[in-house]
Write a structure and sequence with these properties.
It is a single chain. It contains 8 helices and 9 strands. The protein is of the alpha/beta class. Strand 2, helix 2 and strand 3 form a beta-alpha-beta unit. The termini are far apart.
Length: 264
């Protein structure tokens, strides 16, 4: 897909991967509809990056269907169309499955799954009418890999992968593609803002930069036939995923020893 002058709706745009994606897409010549809860964060991003008239700002909660409706309405009013939806907004959750708080889990489902669905429901009919477009759903490699104490979070990302897969088949022949992105651990403020128990400190942990993730996502978007699933992983994460597929019981036993099993 040629990205010059394409209109992109991007959720979770004010921080982390979303912020890096906003800058990268702007440099590609895209016109942006940036969505985040913080109007102040969006305004600071737009001013710092010099987006000017190339960006419309929509503050709101993606879990509220009205936010998706306003974002699409802004895209049509300002730019006359919408070409790409990037469902990037997400919230983390850490804790043993048996101790996940119902309110915390409900909120993570509302943002990570229902929030993406709200934007898909509002955006995809316009893409189908145009006969072309792209939906990009930011999942996580954790959706494919056992991660102790992240069961609640990974359940939502696995659900997003399932939604993406079904949507891709349902849109077959319409000219609208679906790209599912599964990054590994990324150096952002995501962990600090997560719900549930604090993430442990891991000095020396190798994490991807948001800029690298943004670069690889944009490269996939530009390709004539983007992959169904785009894994963006460090070497150690790629090895872990490979071993987990080959020797799942051995890997799970190792994880149980490392993190402790039998949590109740």
């Amino acid at each position: 897909m040629r990205l010059q002058d394409r209109v992109v709706i991007l959720t979770g745009a004010s921080r982390g991967i979303g912020r890096a994606l906003a800058g990268r897409l702007f440099r590609e010549g895209c016109r942006l509809v940036l969505v985040a809860r913080s109007r102040t964060g969006l305004a600071e991003l737009a001013e710092t990056a010099g987006f000017g008239n190339s960006a419309a700002l929509v503050s709101g909660d993606v879990a509220d269907p009205a936010t998706a409706s306003r974002a699409v309405g802004e895209a049509l009013a300002r730019f006359g169309r919408v070409d790409v939806l990037v469902n990037n907004a997400g919230v983390g959750l850490r804790g043993p499955v048996t101790r996940l708080g119902p309110e915390d889990f409900r909120r993570v489902v509302e943002v990570n799954v229902a929030g993406a669905l709200n934007f898909i429901r509002e955006t995809v009919p316009h893409l189908v009418d145009q006969g072309e477009g792209l939906v990009v759903n930011m999942a996580s490699v954790a959706a494919r890999q056992t991660v102790p104490f992240l069961g609640g979070y990974t359940a939502t990302k696995a659900a997003l992968v399932a939604l993406s897969d079904a949507l891709r088949v349902e849109l077959s022949g319409t000219g609208v593609g679906v790209l599912t992105v599964l990054p590994g651990s990324v150096e952002t403020g995501f962990r600090a803002a997560a719900r549930g128990e604090p993430y442990p400190e891991r000095p020396g942990a190798v994490r991807l930069s948001p800029e690298r993730v943004a670069e690889e996502v944009v490269r996939a978007m530009r390709s004539g036939r983007p992959p169904r699933n785009l894994y963006i992983l460090s070497r150690s994460e790629r090895l872990g995923l490979f071993l987990g597929r080959l020797f799942p019981r051995l890997v799970e036993a190792r994880l149980a020893r490392r993190y402790g099993g039998g949590v109740t």
